[in-house]
Amino acid sequence: MPLGTGNNLPFAFGWGKKNPGTDVQAVMSFMKKVKNAKEMKIDNWHILMRMRAPKEGSCDPIAPLEPPLELPHSLHAVHRVSPTDDLNMEGYITFRGGFWNYFSMGMDAQVSYAFHSERKLHPEKFKNQLINQSTYAKLGCSQGWFLASLFHPSSRNIAHLAKVEIMKRSGKWEKLHVPNSIRSIVCLNLPSFSGGLNPWGTPDSNKRRDRDLTPPFVDDGLLEVVGFRDAWHGLVLLAPNGHGTRLAQAHRIRFEFHRGGADHTFMRIDGEPWKQPLPSDDDNTVLVEISHLGQVNMLATDGCKSKSVNDPSSPCCHDAEDKDSDEEDLAQAEEYRKFGAADTFRIPDEVDISQLS
């Protein structure tokens, strides 16, 4: 069962945003929830990253404020494959690992990287959630996330950095069109991201029919691929029916990064970012491929955000809905706004944007 603070996994399965208390009453209440919890399946995802050994420099992932040869915390489950591994290819550097929550790349990962670097440099400044949120908002502004069209070079937009291919139910690779304005892509396994927000939402019956889109299920073998232009675009998630740019749903996803006008990009797995150098060789690329890797069992509370494709009460059984996303009552929407320390898209109420620099 998932536990943790500011963690999308326990939040998505109904266990709240804080760990249970240690007094007798709190423990008994928690154990009652465990006893009454239901078992759900959740998709597990494998990630492979491969590049040809560069002629100059290193293309190893760089963690915030860590030596280049030390893997980021988010990639501790990802390791460089051994020479005897089936995935090893002579002349290539290969990493492999997995995730449950999400993989993202682009500006949101860049802001997260800056946040983690600042926290490692000045840990004494990060003592409570309000300070963390305020710092995150300031870094988002200083990194140009709120004015991306002015401060973010187009050479770092996803369409310029990478060729993206997806594999749907047909089992064939096809090119995914990514609009030139998209600066961040998120591949979601859960309906919870960046403080409990749901970037995919629930497509209405027309979109299900015309684009073959479905609601986000945690056990359907599909990742939801969502794009964002900037932080203002992300703020629509705070609206009851808000969602990002729905790009696709896929069983497998492949990114092929080339240097172009940028010598690096930023990536993130389950909230932990890293800086990914891009090879200087013109004919060398960094390949990132995500594929389904079975399922595991998870305990969930009644009424949790996560839905199963096999549950009769799931949104797919209500085709008469006209709204593009499920309505959230005001209390629940307010809970989402307060949840988490790393609200990528939110400026805290206490922060005066005119004072940010």
UniProtKB/TrEMBL annotation:
The record ties this protein, via SUPFAM superfamilies, to: NAD kinase/diacylglycerol kinase-like
Which keywords does UniProt give here? ATP-binding, Kinase, Nucleotide-binding, Transferase
Statement: the UniProt record of this protein carries the keyword Nucleotide-binding? yes
Coiled-coil annotated spans: none
State one Pfam family annotation.
Answer: DAGK_acc
What's any one GO cellular component for it?
Answer: membrane
GO BP annotations of the record are: phospholipase C-activating G protein-coupled receptor signaling pathway
- Residue ranges of domain Diacylglycerol kinase accessory in the record: 101-273
One GO MF term: ATP-dependent diacylglycerol kinase activity
Q: Give me the ranges of the annotated region Disordered.
A: 304-330
Tell me what this protein is called: Diacylglycerol kinase accessory domain-containing protein
